[in-house]
């Protein structure tokens, strides 16, 4: 079962991974997972 991850957590992960566009990063995560 898939559970939701809080937006703040995702933003932190995106920032740490060097993402420049949070929305695009989220779309990439959705396609990848």
Structure summarized in a few sentences:
This protein has two helices and no strands. It has 33 residues and is mostly helical.
Explain what this protein looks like in three dimensions:
The chain has 33 residues and is mostly helical. The mean pLDDT is 92. It has two helices and no strands. Helix content is 64%, strand content 0%. It is globular and about 25 Å long.
- Following the backbone from N to C, one meets helices and strands in this order, namely HH
Q: Low-confidence spans: pLDDT under 50, at least 5 residues? A: none
Strands, count = 0
* Tertiary shape: globular
Number of helices: 2
Radius of gyration: 10 Å
| Main pleated-sheet profile | none
* N→C terminal distance: 13 Å
Structural class: mainly alpha
**Average pLDDT value?**
92
Q: In which range does the helix fraction lie?
A: 55-70%
List keywords for this structure.
0% strand; 33 residues; mainly alpha
Q: How do the strands and helices of this protein lay out in sequence?
A:
Blueprint: H1 7-16, H2 22-32
């Amino acid at each position: 079962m898939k559970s939701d991850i809080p937006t703040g957590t995702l933003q932190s992960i995106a920032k740490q991974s060097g993402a420049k566009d949070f929305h695009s990063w989220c779309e990439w995560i959705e396609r990848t997972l």
